[in-house]
Amino acid sequence: MSGSGVKRGRPPAFDRTTALTAAIRLFWEHGYEATSIGELTRVMGIKPGSLYAAFGDKKSLFEEVVHAYGRSPAGAFVGAALDEEPTARGAFRRILREAAAVYPDPSHPAGCLTISAATNVTVQDAGVAAFLRDLRNANLAAFETRLKSAQQHGELPAAADPRALAAYFAAVIQGMSQRARDGATAAELTGTAELALAAWPRAQD
């Protein structure tokens, strides 16, 4: 028995949640293509071998990062509004106003990770762009579903086009993300949100 009292054995495992949080921020700030394995291991506090053992390759890590981001307050507010608001107009009002506050928040990189992280990828990484595009299209489909339901319940006039309206709000939200990355303030983005809400179809007199 050693008199030093020091226990020998394997070093403590890294904190997966903490490592993912660091990776989220790096991918969010620099995008998929510009983020290297070296930078990832540095901010995550692990060696390359540990990264590959725990997460697989860079693409697999990125996909886990995106799913973790989607569960965070910065990534979950769209789904929460669609689920929680009793009216479609209330849901989109909340989404747009929260986007105006979340996207330029200085506590994290600007904009939305799923909108901006794969704007420039090589042919070899086209699957990453497709992965994010599928997530954005899923949001678009959720918008359309909510708007069709609103129309069926009389909240939208019969002449309204739920698909076009969903595409419009998706385009506004994506544009707000980019404006935030370009330095737009919460005040500017709130103005954009209010203008977008003014496009909500009204019943004809």
UniProtKB/TrEMBL annotation:
<keyword id="KW-0804">Transcription</keyword>
<dbReference type="InterPro" id="IPR036271">
    <property type="entry name" value="Tet_transcr_reg_TetR-rel_C_sf"/>
</dbReference>
<feature type="domain" description="HTH tetR-type">
    <location>
        <begin position="13"/>
        <end position="73"/>
    </location>
</feature>
<keyword id="KW-0238">DNA-binding</keyword>
<dbReference type="InterPro" id="IPR011075">
    <property type="entry name" value="TetR_C"/>
</dbReference>
<dbReference type="Pfam" id="PF00440">
    <property type="entry name" value="TetR_N"/>
</dbReference>
<dbReference type="InterPro" id="IPR009057">
    <property type="entry name" value="Homeodomain-like_sf"/>
</dbReference>
<protein>
    <submittedName>
        <fullName>TetR family transcriptional regulator</fullName>
    </submittedName>
</protein>
<feature type="DNA-binding region" description="H-T-H motif">
    <location>
        <begin position="36"/>
        <end position="55"/>
    </location>
</feature>
<dbReference type="InterPro" id="IPR001647">
    <property type="entry name" value="HTH_TetR"/>
</dbReference>
<dbReference type="GO" id="GO:0003677">
    <property type="term" value="F:DNA binding"/>
</dbReference>
<keyword id="KW-0805">Transcription regulation</keyword>
<dbReference type="Pfam" id="PF16925">
    <property type="entry name" value="TetR_C_13"/>
</dbReference>
